[in-house]
Specification:
Chain B: This is Spermatogenesis-defective protein 39 homolog. Chain B: It is found in: Cytoplasmic vesicle; Early endosome; Late endosome. Chain B: Keywords: Cytoplasmic vesicle, Endosome. The complex is a heterodimer of chains A (616) and B (492). Chain A is α/β, with parallel strands linked by helices. Helix content of chain A is 52%, strand content 12%. In chain A, strand 4, helix 5 and strand 5 form a beta-alpha-beta unit. In chain A, helix 7 crosses helix 8, helix 15 crosses helix 16 and helix 16 runs parallel beside helix 18. Chain A is globular. Chain B has a domain of 141 residues. In chain B, helix 25 runs antiparallel to helix 26 and helix 25 packs parallel to helix 27. Chain B contains 27 helices and two strands. In chain B, a hairpin with a 5-residue loop joins strand 1 and strand 2. Classes of the chains: A alpha/beta (616), B mainly alpha (492). At the A-B interface, helix 1, helix 2, helix 3, strand 2 and helix 5 of A face helix 1, helix 2, helix 3, helix 10 and helix 12 of B.
């Protein structure tokens, strides 16, 4: 494997075991419904399922036909129907419709719902209400963790973000705790846990309780440290344009479950091509963490090397040629294919980015991060809106403006909102309400207003502790304090210094040297200090909720074990490829290996899209 | 391999449902054998233990008896729990735990009481004490009838704890308000949304709305769960009642307004929007909703007229540029663009006149310019652009003015493939010389580049530029003439 890591970097644990566990359990569940059956799979479960099983696996366990859940009447002649779904009320309602339609038609079938990763009481309540509890049996497939790569594990739960942070529904907290518990029981015991954020704290508690309920056998730990972080601790980072290759590919082509579909413009043929993007792809593995400006040079160097390797054929005799063909040619061809693909992708990226004045966009983002020339930024955003450039992009810039400036001036807020609604539709009133609730796009409040409101509602709320009150209001009144945080943590390097992107000196390289991602900086600082000591001011600005806890066995094994340098970072609410690149960089610098566990891979578009409300 | 591929394709029945493919891995088969062995060994374990029939083998949570995690848990539970220190400390998770507001029964006081007096409240203080664990660990294997008696004995906290683990519980015995609220508050302090919602569903069934709403008002976390639950189950009526009871009038207005999205018929939608005008929006939003209604009203009229005109086949512009989509439900700016495209010259009296739209919806000058510019450029109506930018001062002189910087204008024109001649005119109006030259070079407006270099008296740059224009072209001749011109005093 092409690890460009420090020599003393510890080996990563083998996560393929997680896939096998999930597959075995699925097979077991399928066998619970003996005989031929048709399987209905929820659309967003298909790619994850793809990663751990295939059709012949299912077929061997008597799955006859496969269908996608489409919320329409079904066409199936099987007398056994199995549904593999996320625990969503609407899907269960649809299944009830199917079963009730059968009943009405006098058709007898057996139905089984397999919820993954767990079932919710609310879903079963639907079955009960519809008079189908018992007729439809249910199961749970504890498929919590999908390894997307050697160092990335995803829960594949994009709805975690909206449910938890916008709706304030804690249904996934235990899921996060269980996922952590699974990792702990297979790769633990952990010796130290750090975290920040309300959800992180709750997930920790849930995990801790699950550990206490079970029994852990003493084992050699493979993962020593864990860091839990809520997405709402740092909204700035995922709202920035990504300029590291993997992030850029995700922004433009959308990587789905570790896989990307390149269109004809990339493949330079008339067909689209689905490609897995992970460390197995040697070319990709070498450029994924690079700033885009380096990628071209790298690819052309690689192409030259390839040419040289091919050229060796000249002047070979028959025997040499035979060895060449049998030993090297296949590898070269493979590399050639990968290389031309990534070159095609880079070209396509260049084309798209030059077309939309990417340079100017980046300049605006950097100004916002620096707090510099804000009026110019506002008029850039205004123009973006009035020209009806992407609805998502405009919203993203507005949010970035609001968070970095700690809210918009009332005058600006009103005018930008009005223009936005004119350009993209008044329906977005609902979107604006969501963004305000989350604190992503707000009007600057004169200090008093908030206090008045808090005390008014304070009378209604009987909890005495002030902290609890603030919590109840965190969504309404969350302040980003970005400017102060940026100063405290030196997130924005001085702009007068040259930044050589080929030889990055810090994590800021992932944003062209303009900004060190807050999330990753926190992780760096906490690991360095082995806790939050000295960061009191920072955590205060981040609305608190930080913790650092040590396990009983933490102290003694600490010094020697490699596991202590393996750090599992769990992002609750999603993380971006840029953040993963930054952590990989940090790992190389400090001799750590980071494993990123995330509820889903996110980026600015996904984040904003999750908050849109202009549809039914 | 080929054969199995073909197999898989046959496998997709030819319905309209889309097939999806799985990746093929070579070592799949051997792994499968492994899995199967593993599974079989588990099953043997299960069969020894449990001979209830299939359907009965699922507990409340559906934790399948015999699954991997089940067997793991069973083994764990059957091991004697030894006394040991908790490895990781409990941390305060700041939940508004147990409220004594209306129930008059505070759990925090229970906690204190338990600690000082001991005795009765033991189970509250130490939820994970060995005794309670032992209580339910072994009985999982007993037939249901045997442990039913136990069910009714569980305290609210134990009940919540069991629910978290997906074990069978009965909520029916919690009949007093106090018990119900304790159940809810323990659910909240356990941070398990699934359990909170489960309790809420029970409360919704067994409490009157008034009482439930009143109690939720002081329980923010539970309240948010309830709102989310009602949203998901699309119980709009109850949700509106709840928000009204809480005095959240703006939320009520937005939620009702949202309903328009599910109305497909445009006339019904318009009428619905009209009914929204009286909703308690904030003054600012209220104006937006008014605009929405007015716009919808107009779009319906414009759409009807234009559809007829298009079908009639007598209006040239609809023949030359057939409409690609209906204007219904489009944003205001799109509507303005549409009207600038198809109805540019209409007098302000008509609904579809761009000027009328501009005034009705208070569209800013800049916004109007950008939109009109884009629409007329799309039609290549360059003369209209001229008129758009030309303003006449009181002496009758004309000059070009734009609320938008001219380099943006050039950008828009260029994207609509304006000819060089047109571009040239607007590039020439850019104030900033550097920007002007760079755009002129980019868009091949040679005259501007040449004239600017001449004005700068920069012979070197002009020489350099000669290499970039076409051989034998008019531009080259012009450069040569300039270079040969003895009247110019070059600075280099």
């Amino acid at each position: 494997m092409a690890h460009s890591a420090r020599r003393d970097s510890p080996e990563l644990p083998d996560f393929s075991l997680l896939k096998r566990l999930a597959r075995d359990q699925l097979i077991y569940l399928l066998e619970q419904l003996p005989g031929k059956k048709d399987l209905f799979i929820e659309a967003d479960l298909m790619s994850p399922l793809d990663r751990i099983a295939n059709v012949s696996t299912l077929k061997q366990h008597e799955v006859d036909k496969l269908y996608k859940v489409e919320y329409k009447p079904i066409i199936s002649t099987s007398d056994q129907l199995c549904f593999l779904i996320r625990p969503r009320i609407q899907t269960v309602k649809w299944i009830c419709d199917v079963a009730n339609a059968d009943k009405a038609a006098g058709k007898f079938r057996r139905y089984k719902i397999i919820f993954t990763p767990q079932k919710f009481y609310a879903c079963e309540a639907v079955l009960e209400e519809q008079g189908l509890f018992g007729d439809v049996t249910t199961d749970e497939w504890a498929f919590y963790l999908l390894p997307l790569d050697d160092d990335i594990i995803s829960l594949e739960l994009p709805e975690f973000f909206r449910d938890n942070f916008l709706a304030g529904d804690q249904r996934w907290v235990r899921t996060a705790g269980s996922a952590l518990h699974l990792l702990h029981s297979v790769y633990g015991p952990f010796s130290k846990l750090y975290g920040i954020g309300r959800c992180a704290k709750m997930a920790y508690e849930s995990w801790r309780e699950q550990v206490e309920e079970g029994e852990t056998k003493p084992r050699q730990a493979e993962i020593g440290n864990v860091f839990l972080i809520d997405r709402d601790v740092d909204f700035v980072t995922p709202l920035c344009s990504q300029v590291v290759y993997e992030g850029l590919v995700d922004d433009i082509f959308r990587i789905k479950c570790g896989c990307v579909e390149f269109g004809p413009d990339v493949t330079s043929s008339d067909k689209s091509l689905k490609v897995m993007l992970n460390s197995q792809d040697k070319v990709f593995n070498e450029i994924r963490n690079e700033h885009f400006s380096n990628v071209f040079g790298f690819l052309s160097q690689k192409a030259r090397n390839l040419q040289t390797a091919y050229d060796k054929r000249r002047g070979m005799d028959i025997k040499q040629m035979k060895t060449f063909v049998s030993e090297e040619l296949k590898g070269l061809k493979h590399e050639h294919r990968l290389l031309s693909l990534h070159i095609g992708a880079s070209e396509s990226i260049m084309k798209k980015k030059t077309k939309q004045d990417f340079q100017e966009l980046l300049k605006t983002e950097h100004s916002l991060l620096e707090g510099f020339e804000i009026r110019e930024c506002i008029s850039f955003i205004e123009e973006h809106i009035s020209r009806q450039v992407s609805m998502i992009e405009s919203l993203r810039l507005l949010c970035l403006l609001s968070i970095t400036e700690n809210g918009l001036l009332p005058k600006d807020f009103r005018s930008l909102k009005a223009q936005y609604l004119q350009s993209y539709g008044v329906d977005h009133l609902l979107t604006f309400a969501n963004l305000r609730q989350l604190g992503l796009l707000v009007e600057q409040q004169p200090g008093e207003t908030l206090t008045v409101m808090e005390s008014k509602v304070g009378k209604l709320v009987n909890d005495k502790t002030a902290g609890k009150l603030t919590d109840a209001f965190s969504s309404l009144a969350r302040k980003s304090n970005f400017r102060a945080l940026s100063r405290k943590l030196n997130l924005v390097p001085k702009s007068d210094e040259e930044y050589d992107l080929r030889v990055p000196r810090d994590m800021a390289y992932i944003f062209s040297g303009a900004y060190i991602p807050l999330s990753c900086k926190l992780i760096e600082q906490v690991l360095e200090r082995d806790g939050w000591t000295g960061l009191e001011e920072v955590t205060r600005l981040l609305n608190g909720n930080e913790f650092a806890v040590t396990g009983a066995n933490g102290a003694d094994v600490k010094a020697k074990s490699d596991a202590q340098r393996i750090v599992l970072v769990m992002f609750l609410g999603g993380c971006t490829f840029s953040e993963i690149s930054a952590l990989r960089f940090l790992g190389r610098e400090r001799g750590y290996k980071f494993i990123v566990v995330t509820t889903a891979i996110t980026n600015s578009s996904r984040l904003i899209e999750a908050l849109l409300d202009n549809h039914v | 391999m080929m054969k199995s591929k073909a197999d898989e394709e046959d496998y997709w029945n030819s319905s309209k449902f889309k097939a999806f493919t799985f990746d093929d891995e070579d070592d799949e088969y051997s792994r499968l054998k492994e899995s199967k062995q593993a599974v079989n060994s588990i099953r043997r374990l299960v069969e020894e233990d449990d001979d209830e029939d299939d359907v009965e083998r699922v507990s409340w949570s559906g934790e399948p008896v015999g699954s991997i995690s089940w067997s793991v848990r069973e083994t764990a539970a059957s091991n004697q729990r030894t006394d040991r220190e908790p490895t990781f400390p409990k941390i305060n998770t700041d939940t508004p735990t147990i409220s004594k507001s209306h129930s008059g029964y505070s759990l925090s006081s229970l906690f204190k009481a338990g600690k000082t007096r001991g005795g009765n409240f033991q189970t509250f203080t130490d939820p994970l004490s060995d005794s309670s664990v032992r209580l339910y660990a072994p009985e999982l294997r007993k037939p249901k009838s045997e442990y039913k008696d136990f069910v009714s004995d569980w305290s609210p906290e134990e009940t919540v704890h069991r629910m978290q683990q997906g074990k069978a519980v009965s909520l029916e015995k919690f009949r007093s308000l106090q018990d119900k609220l304790l159940l809810l508050d323990f659910g909240v302090s356990a941070h398990d949304g699934n359990v909170i919602t489960a309790v809420l569903i029970y409360l919704k069934r067994t409490l009157s709305k008034e009482v439930l709403f009143r109690e939720l008002e002081s329980r923010q976390t539970a309240l948010r769960h309830f709102i989310h639950y009602l949203t998901e189950t699309r119980d709009q009526r109850l949700l509106l009642e709840l928000l009204r009871a809480l005095g959240r009038t703006e939320d009520v207005a937005l939620l009702q307004y949202k309903e328009h999205l599910s109305i497909a018929d445009e006339n019904k939608r318009r009428d619905f929007l009209k009914s929204c005008l009286s909703l308690p929006f904030s003054p600012e939003d209220s104006a937006h909703v008014q605009d929405h209604y007015t716009l919808m009203e107009r779009q319906i009229i414009i759409e009807a007229t234009d559809r007829q005109a298009e079908r009639g086949g007598k209006v040239e512009i609809f023949q030359k540029f057939p409409r690609r989509a209906s204007i219904l439900n489009m944003p205001l700016i799109t509507t303005l663009y549409y009207c600038c495209f198809y109805h540019y010259t209409e007098s302000e009296g008509t609904y579809s006149s761009p000027l009328n739209i501009r005034h009705t919806f208070r569209i800013s000058e800049k916004q109007y310019f950008v939109t009109a510019l884009a629409a007329r450029a799309k039609l290549k109506a360059w003369l209209d652009l001229d008129a758009l930018f030309t303003s006449r001062n009181w002496l009758g002189f004309t000059r070009k003015k734009s609320p938008l910087s001219f380099h943006r204008v050039v950008d828009i024109l260029q994207k609509n493939s304006a000819p060089t001649q047109v571009l040239q005119e607007y590039v020439g109006l850019i104030d900033d010389a550097d920007l002007r030259i760079s755009l002129a070079q980019k868009h091949k407006c040679h005259d501007i580049v040449i004239n600017t270099y001449r004005d700068l008296k920069d012979r070197q740059l002009l020489l350099g530029y000669r290499g970039k224009v076409e051989r034998g072209s008019a531009e080259e001749r012009k450069i040569n003439e300039l270079l040969d011109n003895p009247q110019i005093r070059w600075k280099n």
